[in-house]
Structures are given as C-alpha cells and as structure tokens.
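The data are passed on as follows:
___
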Amino acid sequence: MKKLLLITLLFTAFFTKAQCWESVSVGGGHVLGIQSDGTLWSWGYNNWGQLGNGTNFISPVPEQVGTATNWTTVHSGGAHCFGIKDDGTLWAWGHNGQGKLGIGTFTLEMSANPVQVGISTWKMLSTGTNFTIGIRANGTLWSWGQNQDGTVGDGTTIDRAAPVLINASTNWKMTSSSSFRTLAVKEDGTLWGWGSNDSNRLGFPGGTPASYMNVVAVPTQIGTATDWKSVASGFAHTIALKNDNTLWIWGDGNHGQLGNNSTTTFIPYPLQLGTATDWANIESRSSSCLAIKTDGTLWVWGLNNNGTLGNGTQTNLLVPTQITTENNWLSLSSSNNVTAALKTDGSLYTWGYNFFYQIGDITVDTETVVVTPLLINTCNLGTEVFNQKSVKLYPNPVQNRLYVASEETQQYQIYSILGTKISEGTLTVGNSIDCSGVSGGVYLLNLIDEMGNVSTVKFVKE
C-alpha cells in the first residue's frame, strides 16, 4: 500500500509540475523563453549579459533566470532584452549602448541581471538594432534608445535613455521593429510607420509626401486601409496580414523574401501575395520569412544561408514553401542565425546556425548548421534531484542519448514510473546513456556513487 501511494505521489508530482513553453524570442545569438509556470529561461551567447543570469558565460542549454514565476512576455533584441511581469512592470538586461535598455542612463554599459524600467503597466514591445518601441497598458506609444534616422519617433535625432511618449493615442495594438524602422498597427486597423524610409521601404503610397522622405521622424499613417491585422518588419522588407487573413508584402526582395519568385523585384508599397486567405501568424526580423497558416502548417521563404528556413537545405526559397508535415505549429521567432518555434502541445523546436549554442542542445557542436527543426523540449519536467547531489540531464526529454552532467563516476539504474528496472550500467564523467531502446514515457534515473549514495532524477523519453 505504501509503495502504491509513493508511486501515485511521484506520478502526480511529475505531471502537475510539467512546464510547457508558452513563448520564445530569438536574439542575435541567444534565445529567451517563458514556461507555463511563469519562469524565464535563456541560452546561447552572453557577451553582454543578454541571458540575464548575472554572468557573461555562454549557456548551451536552457537555464532558468532567477526565481520569479510571474513573467508573461519576453522579447530579445540583438543583445538587449526585455520581459514584462504579470503586474505590468517592464524589466531590461543586456547591452545598454545608446540607452537602449531604457533604464535612464547612458553610462552603464550593460546589465547582466534584469533591471526594472522606471514606469510600469506595459503591454508589448519590439526592438530594433539599438532602440526599443513599447506600448503601455493604456494603449499609448513609447520609445527609447538610439534615434538615428528617426527610429525613436519623437521628431528629433536625440538618443533617449528612458521611455518617452511618442504618441498619446490610446489604441496602439502592436509594433514590429527592424534595424532602422518600425511598423505598427492600431486597434482601428490602420497601419503606421516611422524611421528610415530609404527607397520608401515603409511603404507609403505614391504621391504621399512622406514617400519622398528618407527619414520619417514621427509615426505616420501608411495609406488609408483600416483592415490591417498584424505586421512583421524585416531588414529591408515588410510582410503583413489583413483581417481577411491575406498576406501582403513590400520592400526589397533580393533574397526572395517577398515570396514572389523573384530576387530582383522591389515593391514600394503594400501588394497582396497570392490569393490565399488562410495566413494566421507571420515572422520576419532579417531577410527570412516564416508564417503559420490557420490549419497549423508552417511555411517559409527568403534568405536561408544559415539554415533559418528549416527546409533541409541552405538554399534560398523564392516562394512560400511548407516545411514538415505537422499541423500544430503555434508561434515563431527568428533572427538572421536561428529560428525557434513552439507547437500547440508546448514543445520547443530550434534550427539554424549554432555558432554560440543558441540551438539549445549541447549535443550539437558549435559552427554546426541545423537545417531542419530540432526538438529541444516538450514539457520540461525539470531535473530536480531528490537529495543534495548536483546533477543535470540533457536533453530532457530525450530521443536517443541522455547526457549526464555530474560530479563523479557512478553506476546508473533506470526505473519506470511503476518501479520496474529498465536498464543499468556504469556511467563515467561526461558519458551518456543510450535510451534509443527505451519506450516513450516518464522514468527515474538512479545515480549511485562509490560510497553508495543515490541521487534520483526524473527524465522523459520521447
């Protein structure tokens, strides 16, 4: 009876503590994610403290940032990062050049820990190379950081170290920023833009005075349409959705990022791509484009030299092309190096150029290009140890080989959730356990040191 009770408690603990991924955001060489319990995680490059863990060390696998359990939104810039908590407070960390953290100072070079941005009640934000745009809970529009080419949008060229109000309208819905420009949508469906407008990349219709300006220094409406749903600003192009789920494109198509089967086309104003009316989610922060349709399928096109399209090659795609056969993709985030995506079951996938472990799987060597979606984690059940030994497992969940980071040579035993021994053997430091023959499910791993002390860790086999 006691054994049955113990098994029941362990089973309940494993599944009530299951932490699925809620959101993910890719930076220049790092990735941030929030799990369903409100915890914040980071991995990859960390030269400016962009992982937020108080260090400058690379993390090859997702590691929790602090102990807070109330993160709701996270966003990665090139090397500056932001998170919003459930009380509406905004927190920043990473590189602070040009004041882009918004914490009120230009002199602090970086912060390796989250620091609160003065004013509170934020809803969402987007980042350019050295500036940030934010929408507060009351729907007003704010900005800070480098103001080259009018990127801050306050009508000046003065860098701002703290958030400044750039538009007092209370119906701003969402923004998307690239290197030197921002596109935004209001709740009324109107489309707005500001910043660098070289060759009219903001997309103003012909004849509009702003279309002849290289710099648009304040938010300015683009056209008269009132049915815009969302927008994604790439390096030199833009893709957008309307309320009828049609896809629209404009800007530079030199890498096929306009999806119109051309690398020579430049489109100076919004133009519908194809006739499909089932586009649901779009992403583009470089010259690669990714989108999810209403049926949950994943489509990609544009620049692919770093494998960010995930289609099994490093060849550019000139038209939207479906990758994988799965139909449960939920959300996307990408940079010019890596793409991260979540499925509706809370699982996390990454692909692209792993130059600083931003893939999030320590078994993938640096300088490796991962050209198809790689499963990093389904629901992270953690690697809690039931005594005081320091043990970490990766990847967890595991598909083939389970790597153990521990302090000493040990014997290992694998038990099922019902207490049946599955396998055992000797584990030396740095070795892995072959789990390819283990059926999918939740297991207990006993690690036994030379003194007979046992550390028990749970893991999941895909």
Q: What stands out?
A: The radius of gyration is 24 Å.
